[in-house]
Design goal:
Helix content is 50%, strand content 8%. It is of the alpha/beta class and 539 residues long. The C terminus is likely disordered.
Length: 539
């Protein structure tokens, strides 16, 4: 085959572009070193790509199993309907009144004490109210899942018997707000409702975080013992625990009531007590034949805080050593909720004739449709002092100490007068109390409402907002959600500003005349016990 001269020249040019011309000399378009570098890199990329593919293929079984776990169905929350939640609240309230007398009789028999139902309502009533609501909420959740048949297994971490018994009500509320504590509670419910689905995984026991007594706690104990010594000089003894009042306001209140007040109330952290299974087996309660009542009776025996059973005698001795043997009046707001040592002493003092006045703490009282704390405090107190929303023989109006103090204060020099405080609130992921407020996942709607509120504000007002987030986020990511809307919390005040604010708080006291009109005269009536002057009437 013969080629023309033009064709020969084209082939020669192509051969030259590939690296070798007609004369046999090399003509490379790039240096040889760069060509080899490109070849090696391409070869290595192919090798690593092959290795990555092999690793991914080998992980497919594990990924498939993990994806299978995420192939789930979210159960509709049984308390998303407010009317259903309110009906359950009334039912659980009635169940509480059925459980409490039986529990009081059983504890009195175990401790060889003859105490009234009111005594045990003060000591253990707060915990019992929370406990019944928490167990019912988890019970309904697990029951709905079992009815749908969507549970293949219920993994439970292995732990020793009675290992998860809380010491105090504080420990209990902490446990039911964590994932670990709720996993254990669901495991206990599963063992009673569907034992065939329970799978024990792991061998780690439960370890509760231990905190030592800090300087603040030691200072409160020292201050209380000093006030106890001074109270011996007065004819009447009044124990005052008001978180919203300053020391000067409490001292004025005690003096107007006719005695030296004892404050501040120290909070003790009891040590761990050895669990006595024989005592717990004596807690046999007959609550009914329905499924929840049977489950509640078993769990109450296993979850009763050791402060009310194994450690009750030790805490009673501690209360008698720290607190006075007899008092005329107790004015309290929330210490009778969480301080178990104080509750044991306060219940004994009330049994001895002391009058109990409880002041409202928190703005939800009176505004919510129902509130279990409000119901409990009215049940245990002789006088309930509210912030002006009710006036009955046993519930008297009293201005809020904090708001009254703020209204009476002049504006501090140097403070920006045009700031608007935005005090946020947050709710735990697990329901722990019976109140007409957001529970569980409804907190997400609460966050969306706050963001919607911010969007509706005019720009001039947005720039004046000072956001103070709630001290607990409960893993909702509240601040992260606000950052998406360019909302930042208020900066922390410097030392000078804090000292100036503290000076206003300490320097101005709350006028006690409203307190005298409402509470003081109730203990200045006829003497009723031992002929003491100043003992109150029967209101």
């Amino acid at each position: 085959m013969m080629l023309g001269e033009g064709t020969t020249m084209q082939i020669a040019a192509a051969d030259k572009s590939l690296g070798r011309g007609p004369d046999g000399a090399e003509h490379w378009p790039v240096p040889r070193r760069q060509a080899w570098f490109a070849f090696v890199m391409a070869f290595l990329l192919m090798v690593f790509d092959y290795m990555d593919r092999q690793v991914v293929v080998s992980m497919f079984p594990a990924l498939k199993a993990e994806w299978g776990k995420r192939d789930h169905e979210v159960l509709p929350y049984h308390w998303s309907d407010v009317s259903v939640r309110h009906a359950d609240y009334r039912r659980l309230n009635a169940l509480l009144e059925q459980v409490l007398p039986q529990l009081a009789a059983a504890l009195g028999d175990i401790h060889a004490e003859r105490r009234s139902v009111r005594y045990w309502r003060v000591v253990a009533g707060t915990w019992l109210r929370y406990f019944i609501g928490v167990v019912y909420d988890r019970f309904r959740t697990l029951e709905a899942a079992l009815e749908r048949g969507c549970i293949e297994g219920l993994p439970v971490v292995r732990c020793e018997p009675w290992q998860r018994v809380p010491r105090t009500i504080t420990d209990f509320l902490h446990d039911v707000s964590t994932d670990e504590g709720n996993q254990h509670l669901f495991g206990m419910l599963g063992a009673l409702m569907a034992p065939e689905l329970v799978r024990v995984v792991g061998s780690e026991g439960f370890s509760r975080h231990e905190e030592g007594r800090g300087a603040r706690e030691w200072a409160s104990v020292a201050a209380f013992m000093a006030s106890r010594g001074l109270s011996k000089l007065s004819s009447r003894r009044v124990v005052v625990s008001l978180a919203y009042c300053t020391a000067g306001e409490i001292a004025k209140l005690g003096l107007q009531l006719g005695g030296m007040p004892l404050f501040p109330i120290p909070r003790f952290r009891p040590r761990a007590f050895a669990i006595d299974a024989s005592k717990r087996n004596r807690l046999v309660l007959d609550l009914g034949n329905d499924r929840f009542s049977r489950v509640l009776a078993v769990l109450l025996k296993e979850c009763l805080p050791s402060a009310y059973l194994e450690g009750y005698a030790a805490l009673s001795r501690l209360a008698r050593r720290v607190f006075p043997k007899s008092v005329d009046a107790i004015v309290d707001d929330n210490a009778l909720h969480m301080n178990d040592v104080y509750k044991i002493w306060g219940a004994s003092a009330i049994e001895g004739g002391a009058r109990l006045a409880i002041c409202q703490h928190g703005g939800f009282y009176g505004s919510g449709e129902w509130n279990d704390d409000e119901v409990h405090e009215k049940a245990v107190s002789d006088v309930f002092l509210n912030w002006g929303w009710e006036h009955t023989p046993t519930s008297r109006p009293l201005p809020s100490p904090v708001l009254s103090r703020l209204l009476a204060q002049p504006k501090a020099s140097g403070e920006t007068p045009d700031r608007v405080a935005w005090i946020s609130n947050m709710f735990p992921r697990y329901a722990s109390s019976q109140r007409s407020m957001p529970v569980s996942s409804e907190a997400l709607g609460h966050i969306e409402d706050q963001i919607a509120f911010f969007r509706c504000l005019p720009p001039t007002l947005r720039s004046r907002l000072w956001l103070r987030p709630y001290h607990k986020d409960w893993d909702w990511g509240f601040l992260a959600r606000l950052e998406e809307e360019n909302i930042e919390p208020a900066p922390e005040a410097d030392r000078r500003t804090l000292l100036r604010r503290l000076s206003f708080v300490a320097g101005r006291g709350l006028p006690v005349r409203p307190v005298l009109r409402v509470a003081g005269r109730r203990w200045r009536g006829r003497g009723r016990r031992r002929g003491r002057p100043g003992r109150g009437g029967d209101g």
